[in-house]
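Reviewers of the previous submission asked for a worked example of the structure-prediction workflow described in the proposal, so we include one complete record here. The input consisted solely of the amino acid sequence. No template or homolog information was supplied to the procedure at any stage.
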Amino acid sequence: MSKNSMKRRLLPGLLASVMMARLIFAAGPQAPGRGLNIVVDLLAKLDDPAAEADVLRGVSEALKGRRDIPMPLGWRAIYPKLQKSPNADVRDQSAALALMFGDADAVAALRSKAADARSDPAERLMAIDALAGAHDNQTGKILLSLLDDPAMRGVCIRGLAAYSEAATPGAILDRYGKLSDVERREAVNTLSSRAAWAVPLLDAVEKGQVPHADVSAFTVRQLAGLHDRAIDERLKKFYGSVRPPAKDKAKLIGMYKKTFTPDMLAKADLSHGRAVFAKTCAVCHTLFDAGGKVGPELTGSQRANLDYVLENVVDPSAVVAKDYYMTVIETNDGQTLTGIVKGETDATLSLRDTVAETTLPKNQIKSRRTSAVSMMPEGLLEGLGINDARDLIAYLASPAQVPMK
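From that input alone, the workflow returned the following structure tokens.
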């Protein structure tokens, strides 16, 4: 596809998103009803599936993270038409919106599709995502029932974080050994979002059921953000102090500078260092176009400067750019979310963590704390063996990517 033809295809969708957002919120972000009525009238007159998809996509983007939106006038009349569209995007987007509007028939249809192993996997994933986004009260049990379905498992583990199902930690941990690396990150992230689930997670770490290294530095910060004394004591046992006294940091840096001499670093296995980076740093940081987007990009930093590396690893909270301040959200139903604020409106807030970006309604937020403390806790090097630490530091200083061992 040429660049010009791609632009022609993308432009209508982009314009629709902007126009729908402006139209829907013309009366103010808290009152989208009148704008939605106008959009529904427009949809009733359209007979081009591609145009319908663009308009619906714009509405979905404008209402992202919102819940309990009153059903607009005329929606029941056009919904059957949209569901019969030959365009799958029209069917999916309209079903998700119907759920947001509280359409009981749409809720039942999405629940049925999510649980039906014979349905198209992409449509099942859309149904699960829509149900979880609308916080449908039966979705938690549906997600638990699908944990043995490989095609659905990842999105189900992530979705369970929004539901306080008592069976969640046991169900996830019982299957932990057969999860993929990505699913394990989802599992640890979900289990660290509630104090009641963090205890079984740490029990599993103590028993070796969950490898110590699977609990990243970011997760340790999130667990510390639960402000549970028993959890804090166990974190100290497994991962050291989350914020050691300042006087100890200069001493640690000096000790590491004496240890990691040029001769010692010259013996490093860079491929193994990349593997250590993937386990300990890549969930938050990007290096050589690979890794997460929560923390700063490392590729262009002063990675070859040992002083710079040690100061940032041993004392990551010494200097934190404002864009990377840690925000901790507690929801009304007891979920704790930790991450970087990526977007905010009068009605919603978008938070990015190591797994995904979550948009939630502000009226569901019980408390919000923002801190200049880094999400990366101290103690990363102390938690590694001397050879792992050496290989990691040498890999960080590498001028180019190396093969993964």
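The beta strands are 286-287, 290-291, 326-331, 336-344, 348-352, 357-361, 365-371. We consider this example representative of the routine output the project will generate in years two and three.
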